[in-house]
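Z., the sequence and structure:
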Amino acid sequence: MSTTERTGSRLDLAAAGFGALLVAAAIGVGMHIEDAHGTLHLNWPPLYASWDPHIGPGTPAALTVAALVIAYAPPLAARLPWRSLLLTAWGTSLAWIWSLALVDGWHRGVARRLTTTYEYLQVVDRFDDIPATLRDFNRHILIDAPDHWPAHTAGHPPGATLTFVLLDRIGLGGGGWAGAFCVTAGSTAVVAVLITLRTLADETTARRAAPFLVLAPAAIWVGASADGYFAAVTAWTVALLASAATRTARSPGAAALGSGLLFGLTCYLSYGLPLFALVCAAVLLVARTLRPLPLFLAGLAVAPLAFTLAGFDWWEAYHLLVERYYQGAGGIRPYGYFVWANLACTVLVVGLAGVAGLRRTLASAPTALRHLATGGATAPHRLVALVLAALLALAAADLSGMSKAETERIWLPFATFLLAATALLPDAARRRWLAAQAVLALAVNHLLLTGW
């Protein structure tokens, strides 16, 4: 190992150590604030979770998946045919998410997740007349409004709730089907990110990231929260745009239009996800083209047009949501704590390997941006640009003050792309970093009862 490689490895360990200290500080300071003032509304800050050491039916499977990925994933990712790699990554991601969810058991870990008093399934029956409900949606956002929406329905545009309404309409009603849908949809984000990396950077970069995308601690919150589904929608938005911009899709025009359609849907799933425009802009910057933009914008217009014609006013709803946010826990939770404790949550979502990858991303950023500007960017430079865009979007969400707590699930769409930075980690340390990811995920899932 050269001196440069040894220095880089030491810096990676230092970054991981800093991430661990940030988490420890967020726990210690958060516990003190909650004990002294009760303003965090969290049982185990900075996560929305409770201390509850336990094992469950998913424990043997989770241990098995982790061991197999650590032992075999790096060489398999390097040599499997591309399509086989995508299918294997998806299947393994699905197994990892399901096994972690079932550590809490079927009822507590999956079926009940989306049926609590805060969740979308509480209001499915109120959407019997969908057009009328959309016209009336904004009247029920504020907490003092008559028959106000539960927190998650009020806190999101109606596209999120409509997803579960439509599942119910086709006979897949109830928490079990909703949870299974979120797990299945969320697991496909791995495939979308791999396609994006291969398209924008190169196939080697995608293959290097694959084991880390599969074994991410983020899987804890993908199974089973609606934000895992949101992460898949945003990931496929970016994958289709990348394929259109590089003209690697069979039909670049259809890919651009499909990307726009998904981005329009994204804006009606969560008020924070329009920030993904920064990642989309990075795709066009890296590809050095604006060619997909007209069809992308045409697709983007469809969902806003449909919802507006149906009577839902997005901007009015957003302003009412801000008021609702400060009527509840958001108005009590201290910004000064969460503006940095949210980053500790991100450490737990992307893992210590993710932190080390982000360290390498930031170290390479000046060189990467300079080469992008001159047209001489290599695959690692293009990867760095994509990760930086996701990091910038996350920073904007953090500074907004509208993401105080619960970011372990809310920021899953951003974290999915932050994990791509693990492709920058050196070969010699890959299994050790994968082991660190697995240990963190297993520890969190078995020591805490997470709320999502």
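The chain has 22 helices and two strands. The beta strands are 49-51, 448-450.

Let me know what you think.
H.
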